[in-house]
């Protein structure tokens, strides 16, 4: 009996480990793209496909890059691009970011900021 419980516990642990090993691309919530914490994702008009981020210095502090984990898997229009320290998510070729002034999941305080920042709408 104890052996069956032990085997079942080990099997459950293995299934959990496998199910979290491959994370998905960002998801959609209420018509907008969000990261794994539910924070809104944005694109920056000054970014050009295939080029380094145009958001540096103070810009990068206010608009942190949405970074992909090593286990994250691109899907559909979601890809990753090289960024300082790893890979950044991109949607339809455009790098994506979060906004420091979004305090909680669902906030969209950066939408149309200076007419250059836009919510990703998959």
From TrEMBL:
Q: Please indicate which superkingdom the organism of origin belongs to.
A: Bacteria
GO annotation (BP), single = alkane catabolic process
Query: Would you indicate the residue range of the signal peptide?
Result: 1-23
Cite the Pfam families for this sequence.
Lipoprotein_15
Q: In its keyword annotation, does this UniProt entry include Signal? A: yes
The family database entries (InterPro entries) matched by this protein are listed as: Lipoprotein_repeat, UCP029720
Q: Does the keyword Lipoprotein apply?
A: yes
The alphabetical list of record keywords is:
Lipoprotein, Signal
Q: What is this protein called?
A: Orf21 putative lipoprotein
Upper lineage is: Bacteria, Pseudomonadati, Pseudomonadota, Betaproteobacteria, Burkholderiales
């Amino acid at each position: 009996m104890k052996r069956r419980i032990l085997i079942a516990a080990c099997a459950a642990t293995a299934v959990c480990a496998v199910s979290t090993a491959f994370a998905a691309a960002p998801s959609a919530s209420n018509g907008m793209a969000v990261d794994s914490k539910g924070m809104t994702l944005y694109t920056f008009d000054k970014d050009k496909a295939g080029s380094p981020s145009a958001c540096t210095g103070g810009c990068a502090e206010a608009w942190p890059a949405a970074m992909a984990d090593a286990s994250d898997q691109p899907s559909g229009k979601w890809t990753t691009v090289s960024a300082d320290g790893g890979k950044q998510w991109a949607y339809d070729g455009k790098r994506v970011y979060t906004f420091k002034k979004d305090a909680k999941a669902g906030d969209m305080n950066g939408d149309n900021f200076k007419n250059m920042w836009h919510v990703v709408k998959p």
